[in-house]
Amino acid sequence: MTFSSPATILAEGQSWSIATAPANPRLAMHYRLPKGIQPFLTWLTAQPAPGEALRERSPLRFVAIALLQTLLGIVLSVAALQLCPSLILVGMLLTTAGLGLFQVVVFHHCSHGTVFRTRETNVWVGQLVSAVLLFKHFDHYKKEHMLHHSNNKLLTEEDEFADFVFNTCRLEAGVNLAVLRRRVLLSIVSPLFHARFAVRRVQAAWSSHDRRHNLIGIAVWAALALPALVTGQWLAFLLAWVVPVTVLLQAATVGRILCEHSFPDAEVIATRGRDLTCHATGGVFPGMMPPSAGAGSPHGALAWLGWWANMLIVQVFVRMVVLVGDAPCHDYHHRKPASRRWTSYIQARHLDIQAGSTTFKTDYKETWGLFRAIETTLASLSRLPAGTPL
Predict the structure, then answer these.
(1) What is the DSSP string of 273-288?
(2) Is the backbone of residue 120 left (phi > 0), alpha (psi -120 to 50) or beta?
(3) Tens of pLDDT along 203-256?
(4) What whole-number distance in Å separates Cα of residue 361 and Cα of residue 274?
(5) Using CB atoms within 10 A as the burial measure, which of 134, 289, 306, 351 is most buried?
(6) Residue 131 neighbours by CB distance under 10 Å
(7) Residue pair 69/94 in contact by the 8 Å Cβ criterion
(8) Does position 7 have pLDDT exceeding 50, yes or no?
(9) If you average pLDDT over every residue of the chain, what do you get?
(10) CB neighbours of residue 390 within 10 Å
């Protein structure tokens, strides 16, 4: 089944043109770049262009992509060690991309019961993912995640996002923005931070109330580690599996979670109104405004070269490793957490915008660029008075 993107609806109703289009990087890409690359730009930016109509996808497609990326990444990493060590990072990042999809899409949406048809399958797969990939036991995660979707619990001590910000990343309200930036950067490169994060994950995954769940996770890791140790391939095991599932996935998790939400004014938080989630959540889209100059002049050619370098290196990395799956449209998910249209999140979010998001009074908001979005979150935390009750 296909449906028109909201940009198509606007084009039909209001005759979009380059002169009337708002300052939206995706629309500028549509007008300034060839038609043939528009589907790629839609995936990369997580925003549709006028005239596009994409098919709704099966949730199983995301499961298959996650599994394929993970396995291909492992194979590439192992092969690179033997044939071309310079490609090892590519393999490790591909594995991390697949693990991120398991975390952000499969595990997460299983908790909402929207990946598989039956509740039992969603629970079984969620438990398997949590045991093997060292996530919090699925039952505990599901319970805490439902609290995260409550306006009464969002940005409180019981909220998983607030817990990550204050306890895992050890950030604080009312602290100078430069200090918060430094703490985040040091965390990402700190062996101590990653060791503490990994230990916390292992405890949450293998010291749960469910002995069977714990044993499954330990058994899978033992089945991977023992042959590597016996055959002397411990370095391959370390680089192809352990580093991606710990250090790289944890760094990506920091980047993603720190841009999923921001902290509204203390009064908004204290009021706990129905639109709190709208004030605290926005879309985050990879990409930047393309140059307005033509490529015919030296200045224009240089501008376009820099733009393409940014899009194909920085933004593809962000989209593949950090803002995976429907993560760019996290605001849509919070407005419609039970929607099965999450598989077509790019169009679904825009259709909701064009419908006026009738269930909320607060408009959607968006930020272009991962680093700018993280800066927005840190700035909002810095502005929040120290000791603000959460």
Answers:
(1) -TTHHHHHB-EEE---
(2) alpha
(3) 999 999 999 999 999 999 999 999 999 999 999 999 999 999 999 999 999 999
(4) 9
(5) 134
(6) 25
(7) yes
(8) no
(9) 90
(10) 18
Residue 299: both structure tokens together: 């200045």
Nearest to 64 by CA among 343, 346, 347, 257: 343
How many residues are given for the chain? 390
Tell me the domain boundaries of the chain: 2-57+280-379, 59-260
d(CA 135, CA 149): 19
Q: Where are the alpha helices (DSSP H) in 207-322?
A: 211-230, 234-237, 243, 249-260, 266-271, 276-280, 298-309, 316-317
Give the type of residue at 39.
P
Q: Is 110:129 a contact under the CB 8 Å cutoff?
A: yes
366, burial (CB in 10 Å: exposed 0-12, middle 13-18, buried 19+): middle
Q: Do the bridges between strand 2-4 and strand 53-55 make them parallel or antiparallel, or are there none, so unpaired?
A: antiparallel
Sign of the four-CA dihedral 241, 96, 144, 121: negative
Tell me: pLDDT of 69 over 90.
Answer: yes
Q: By three-state DSSP, how is residue 366 classified? A: strand
pLDDT digits (tens, 9 = 90+) for 249-289: 999 999 999 999 999 999 999 999 889 999 999 999 999 99
Residue type, 36: G
pLDDT of residue 365: 92
- CA 299, CA 296: separation in Å to the nearest integer? 8
